Amino acid sequence: QVQLVESGGGLVQAGGSLRLSCAFSTRTFSSYTMGWFRQATGKEREFVVAINLRSGSTDYSDSVKGRFTISGDNAQNTVYLQMNSLNAEDAAVYSCAAKFDPFGNPRIALDDVHYWGQGIQVTVSS
Fold first, then answer.
1. Tally of CB atoms within 10 A around 102
2. For the segment 57-72, what is each residue's pLDDT rounded down to a tens digit?
3. 40, exposed or middle or buried, with CB in 10 Å at 0-12, 13-18, 19+?
4. Comparing C-alpha atoms, which of 59, 15, 17 is closest to residue 37?
């Protein structure tokens, strides 16, 4: 099973910014929808954001809309998540996910995920 390689994350002060990266080894990168889920301690894993690499269409959760931006670099098979105005509610383990979708649909649900990254920690300090 192909895995996604995540990088970035770490400790950031409240109100600050952080960028996550997710590299995918597939030869058909543009045929996927990719995105991020997160899970805070004691909470259920939740959807954050996704992008379809063929159409460029995006899907944001209401909690991050206007603060987070997802983008894709097809030449490097990498998606990025720029996170601004971080707060304590954003602290979680963030996991990159990929779903095969050649039709341009940017939406992804937990049950749709084909490949998962290992997860990276984002910690927000006061």
1. 14
2. 999 999 999 999 999 9
3. middle
4. 59
